[in-house]
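Hello,

I think I submitted the NAP job twice by accident. Can you confirm which output corresponds to this input? Input:
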Amino acid sequence: MKAIQVHNFGGPEVLQLEDISDLSAGPGQVVIQVRAIGVNPVDTYIRAGLHAVKPSPPYTPGSDAAGVVESIGEQVTRVKHGDSVYVAGSLSGTYAQQCLYSESQVHRLPAHLTFEQGAALGIPYATAYRALFQKGQGKPGDTVLVHGATGGVGTAAVQLARAAGLTVFGTGGTEKGRSSVSQQGAHHVLDHHAADYTDQILALTGGTGVNLILEMLANVNLAKDLGLLAKFGRVVVIGNRGKIEIDPRATMTRDLSVLGMTLFNTSDEDRASIHAALVAGLENGTLKPVVGKEMPLADAAHSHEAVLEPGAFGKIVLIP
Ligand code: NAP
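Support: Only one job matched these inputs. Its output is below.
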């Protein structure tokens, strides 16, 4: 089968399409025939050798995909040959025509969704769910600012928050992105490059600020976030690409909490709960992954450049 291989950490050019051996499922494992692959920013950090997760080269990147179950190992009961599934996490890497998973990483893809939409689920939707509910303790009636609502995680967060009864503020850097944020259900949409957008958020909340912020670029926004939170407010740091100076006093006067998270730290129990909620949301139609760009697997290097460019619009997906 064809798979992307990384022999040395480095720039996007290290992503090479090669022929490698077919996979077979051991006990408790599942082999998927991959139809679409989700490209996440973390794939680029790992490829560059800049992430705490450092696979031993040569390795196949990727943790998100959707496809059809090709074979199952002994003791696998949740899926069978021919089932449509999405996957979150992988034993072999998803940038390939075939992938190997443990049974717990495979989840049913409802029939009305495309494989491309299924590939948009794993990291983005699980991250958004964990940040909103498990870390941020968001509840119906809360106000939430999705600071960076146009990309994979942001789109998911807007849909999840809206369906759960929160009042949703979403920001985007382009007109096209903001229009999508509005379509996904945000009540208020703002431009995170506008000089006065924080004033607009405060005005829209009657001066009190929001209860929860999901932050996609903390090194730019964390200081501003502390000024946008209501008393007892929480900011969940999801994305960060540098350093920032903040005044901790702001956290004291209004009992604010700054919560870091990485999806890799999620317990098996919390992970199972997240995917049960996501499958329910897919089935009842409240969750509809947005695919912004499709590329052939051979263009994996270009996808790694595109996923870090500004002007996000839904999810970038590779087709093997
Ligand atoms: P993505 O699809 O590339 O989206 C990036 C988002 O950041 C876009 O909405 C973009 O908006 C927004 N952004 C750019 N400049 C911004 C600014 N000044 N203020 C606020 N937002 C801004 O990436 P993603 O998959 O959604 O992931 C988002 C971030 O979270 C990445 O850094 C990723 O590495 C990280 N992440 C972390 C975890 C975790 O476990 N902690 C899990 C998944 C992702 P525009 O392009 O419209 O300007």
